[in-house]
Design goal:
By secondary structure, this protein is an alpha/beta fold. It has a single domain (17-74, 82-153), classed as Rossmann fold, CATH 3.40.50.2020. It has 3 helices and 10 strands, in the order ββαβαβββαββββ. A 6-stranded mixed β-sheet has the order 5-4-3-6-7-8, sandwiched between helices. It has a 4-stranded antiparallel β-sheet with strand order 1-2-10-9. The protein is globular, with a radius of gyration of 16 Å. Bound molecules: guanosine-5'-monophosphate (5GP). Guanosine-5'-monophosphate (5GP) is lined by residues 48, 72-74, 79, 103-112, 156-158, 162-164. Residues 48, 72-74, 79, 103-112, 156-158, 162-164 line the site of guanosine-5'-monophosphate.
């Protein structure tokens, strides 16, 4: 089994690069069908979403307008339960747009809930959510996630954009904390 050490912790491979690619291919086909004849305004939530955004927008054939925001609720390995705006929607014109929020992972759902609340007032024609990972047992806020790569248990994971205190985002598969 592939293992990696980041700072003081050891992580083991959990979802391989091949599995991730296969799943992105499947979801890209679904997205292309759902958005036929439309343009998607993809809004990635940094920093974790940068890898999956790059993959997703190259796998789908639907035209995309790529944008980023940065809202976070995590510090180290735990949620702070407070969502902080680091780079907001600001003057982004989303009226009449088909917006797709792209997240790396949904844990409590607080960040997404906050984002969707802000988006309500932006006049988008439609709003959908894509997340590479979802922790169903951890979700506290009711949020609709339209496209999910993988449901996972409440383990702390890194790789494919996700970090442990700044490290591990570059790993090309997903790793979980070794027990
Ligand atoms: P939520 O607001 O849904 O609780 O948390 C979402 C954010 O928390 C994600 O965008 C991510 O930054 C962080 N997060 C949640 N779970 C994990 C995890 O298992 N690993 C890492 N690296 N970040 C996580």
């Amino acid at each position: 089994m592939k293992k990696v050490t980041l700072h003081d912790k050891t992580f083991e491979e959990y979802i391989s690069r091949e599995k991730i690619q296969t799943r992105i291919d499947e979801l890209a086909i679904e997205i292309d069908k759902d958005y036929a004849d439309k343009t998607i305004t993809m809004v990635g939530n940094l920093t974790g979403a940068f890898i999956i955004m790059a993959d997703l927008c190259r796998h789908i054939h639907t035209p995309v307008d790529v944008k980023f925001v940065k809202y976070s609720s995590y510090e180290g390995m735990a949620t702070t339960h407070v969502v902080k705006e680091r780079m907001g929607f600001g003057g982004m014109d989303l009226s009449g747009r088909h917006v797709m929020i792209v997240e790396d992972i949904i844990d409590t759902g607080l960040t997404l809930h906050y984002l969707l609340d802000l988006l309500k007032h932006k006049g988008a024609a439609s709003i959908k959510v894509f997340s590479l990972l979802l922790k169903p047992d951890s979700v506290q806020k009711e949020v609709q996630v339209d496209y999910v790569g993988f449901d996972i248990p409440n383990d702390f994971v890194v790789g494919y954009g996700l970090d442990y205190d700044g490290m591990g985002r570059d790993l090309d598969s997903i790793y979980k904390l070794s027990s």
